[in-house]
Design brief:
Blueprint lengths: L1 H29 L1 E7 L8 H15 L4 E6 L10 H6 L5 E4 L23 H10 L2 H9 L4 E8 L6 E3 L13 E3 L2 H9 L3 E3 L6 H7 L4 E2 L4 H7 L7 E4 L8 E7 H5 L3 H34 L5 E4 L2 H19 L3 H32 L2
Parallel strand pairs: 1-2, 1-3, 6-7, 6-8, 9-11
Antiparallel strand pairs: 3-10, 4-10, 5-8, 5-9
């Protein structure tokens, strides 16, 4: 009897040990594996790192149940084909910017930024609490994706220019890398907008394919080395007062997730949207100091003539956009109404505080 008991115990113990060893392998085998395609160079400060952090948060919070590999622009699809790749099932998730899809759905531009539009705080308030997310979901559904805010580069700069801009006339014929509605504003001001992918900006500037480039802000721009070619760095970033990065998830992949994994994906994106703003404030502060000090970049304010012309032109562009179709009109009406309400508060809150702080 004792021998039998020991043999039984040995079998039970052996089986338990085998089960314990098999459990991680089983969990690993059952894990969902997604591919994330992005519009960014690998680990680019700002949006590139936001993509990495979203994937890592999802992996950690899900305990490995949802494992996402991140791919830079060009590794699987080019920078401007992320929407089609995710909607078409080439990848399950993407990290990009909505204004790249302006040609497919004009209202998409509102979800990154528009000239003289919402600031980062105002934009988040519109999407999260002002009805913007529901309209975003509706807008993207026909393309087979669900959108989330997945990062933010904050208030952007006016851009890098090889030559000084002394007035509106200097924009005539200038080849400016500018996407979204800002590109149309530049076109009407006499410039020639270019849709250069992020990874090609520096070489295009070096070769003279472009004369100026609007990208993000100091914390991201310094990593591209743009200061080596274009010594004039202009502000304010009237074309891009906000810089929301989006995560888009294939609707087929999203609908296949259980409630827990859906909550994890949504939470990871929301956390990054918040963290990225904080991170970019730090990076921009440090990088601007380095650019103007160590690298002798010449910081310039756009002439008021340029700002005034851009503002009136922007009003025309947005008004025309609002009349394109019913879907665009819904987003336009919601956005512009929120901007009007938020602007009244921002003038007596943020603007007045900053002015008082300078006294």
């Amino acid at each position: 009897m004792p021998n039998i008991t020991r043999r039984k115990l040995a079998r039970v113990a052996g089986g338990a040990a085998a089960g314990a060893l098999a459990a991680p392998s089983l969990a690993l085998a059952q894990a969902k594996r997604w591919r994330m395609v992005t519009s960014w160079p690998k680990r680019l400060p700002g949006p590139g790192m936001s993509a990495e952090r979203v994937a890592e948060r999802i992996r950690t919070l899900s305990g490995g149940k949802l494992d996402i590999s991140v791919h830079a622009a060009g590794e699987i699809v080019p920078a401007f084909e992320v929407l089609d790749a995710v909607g078409g099932g080439v990848a399950e998730i993407g990290h990009t910017a909505s204004f790249y899809w302006q040609g497919k759905m004009p209202a998409a531009a509102f979800y990154t930024t528009v000239p003289f539009g919402l600031t980062p705080g105002e934009h988040v308030a519109w999407v999260d609490a002002g009805g913007g997310q529901a309209l975003w979901d509706e807008l993207y559904a026909p393309f087979g994706v669900k959108p989330f805010m997945g990062g933010n580069t904050g208030v952007c700069m006016g851009g890098w220019f090889r030559h000084e801009v002394k007035g509106r006339a200097d924009l005539g014929g200038m080849k400016v890398r500018s996407l979204g509605l800002g590109g149309e504003v530049y076109r009407r001001l006499g410039a020639t907008p270019q849709t250069t992918p992020p990874a090609e900006i520096l070489t295009s500037l070096q070769s003279g394919v472009i004369d100026a480039v609007e990208f993000v802000g100091p914390g991201t721009d310094i990593a591209l080395g743009l200061y080596r070619v274009a010594p004039f760095y202009y502000y304010p970033g009237f074309n891009k007062p906000n810089g929301t990065g989006e995560c888009i998830v294939s609707l087929n992949a999203w609908n296949a997730l259980d409630a827990e994994l859906k909550a994890i994906v949504a939470h990871a994106c929301a956390t990054e949207a918040n963290f990225a703003l904080s991170e970019m404030e730090r990076l921009n502060t440090e990088a601007l100091s380095a650019l103007t000090g160590q690298h002798s970049v010449q910081l310039r304010a756009f002439p008021q003539e340029v700002i005034a012309a851009a503002r009136s032109t922007s009003t025309e562009v947005l008004s025309e956009l609002g009349g394109r179709n019913a879907a665009t009109r819904k987003v336009y009406d919601s956005y512009t109404a929120f901007r009007e309400r938020a602007g009244a508060w921002s003038k007596i809150s943020l603007k007045s505080v900053l002015e008082a702080r300078d006294i």
